[in-house]
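Explain this one:

_____
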Amino acid sequence: MFGILKKNELETTNKLFQLTVHIGRGSSAEMPENLIGAYVPIFVGAQDHEAAAMKAVLSLTQRGFEFIHIADGKIHELDPKKWNSFVKESWPEFDTYFPSQATVLHQLNSEFLFTGPFAGYEAQENA
């Protein structure tokens, strides 16, 4: 009986999710001093969209950033077998920055979490 459970657990795979998170500087020293916030795409291996959001937010807050919200409130499920195509279509200028499809597929069942490029912004001055 226990052998059957272990086999099923090994076959269970996480899904791949993408969400964009709006963050503030918080206590993090990673963000350049002239920036007060950023939008960050995060790619997460998780059982469902809620677990993906929790992992993403936890990762950023552990790095000292302030979580503001999930941009547009949307969490997208991606096909990990089409990762290379997704990167080439969505982020062609960052092709070498993103992990390979083989890496995504290999790490999906473990703690896969990848933070894409930050789109930072400065404070708006009052006119």
